Amino acid sequence: MENKPQRKRGTLIFWLLFLAIATAISATVLLANQHRNLKHLMRWLGLPLHETMVIPKPGGLEKFRGRRLQGVAVLLDPYVFMHEIKGMESAFLRSMKKDGENLCDLFNRSGFPMSKWQPGTFAKKVNECWYELAIPNAEKPDDPSTFFLMIKGAQDGTLVSTRVKFIFTDAAARAKLTAMAAEVLTDFADATKWTEIADQKNKLLALTPFNSTLSGVSARFSSEFSGSGRYNLIFSRTDLNPAQKRTEDYFEHRHFYPLLPEHGGPAIAAAQPKP
After folding, report:
1. Percent over 70 (pLDDT), the chain
2. Which H or E run includes 21?
3. Where are the domains of the chain?
C-alpha cells in the first residue's frame, strides 16, 4: 500500500517533465525565424495578428580597412547616354556562323556518312558535303526509295543551307526515311542551339508541312507536287529586315566601329569639299 503514493508521485513527475520538454520544443519551433511559424499558426486559427514595423536607425558609412584600390578612368562612348533613336532600333538575330565542316562531322558521327567538305561542283566559292542512300523496292526494282542530305556553307564559316530530300516509293521505307529526317532536324537544332525548331519533330514524323521562321533563320518542311511520297526539309537564312540588318552590322567591325587602317581596318575616305 505504501508503493502506490510513490508510484503516483513518479508518474506525476514524469508527465510534468514531459510537458515541460514538449512546451520548450514547441516554443522553440514557433519562435524561430522571427516568430514566422507562430504567425502562421495564429493566421490558421483565425486569431488577430498585430505586426509592428521596425524602422532601422540611420547608420554611418562602413569604414574599409586595408589598401584602397586606385581608380581607373574609362572612356565611355556618347551612345551610352543617348536615348533610343527612332529608326535605329535593332532586333534579335540568330547567328548562322556555324562552321559547315564541323556540322558535316557532327552528322557523320550521328550515322550519316558524309562526303568530304570541299568546294561545290558548280559554285566554287561555296563548300558542301553530302550523303545519299537508296533503299531497293522489291515490287519496283527501277524505282527505289532515296534519302539525300546536303550542307552548304561559305568559306568564312557562314552556313548557307542544310537540305534533306527523301522519296519513299513503298510503305516499308516510309518509316525509316521519315525517322532519318527527324534525326537531322534534332541534330541541327542541337548544333545551332535552335531548340524551338526541335518542337516540330512530331509534325515531321506525321509528314505534316510546317514553316518556322525565327530571328533571321527558317526551317521549312514541305511536300513536292510532282508526286506522292516526296518531301523536302530545308534550313536556310531568311532576308533580314532593317532592324536585323543593324544587329548584324553591330557585330561586324567592317560596318560598325571599324578598326583604324594601321590595325587592319578599311581606309578612311577623304572628306568631300562642300559646294
Report:
1. 78
2. helix 3-45
3. 12-46, 100-250
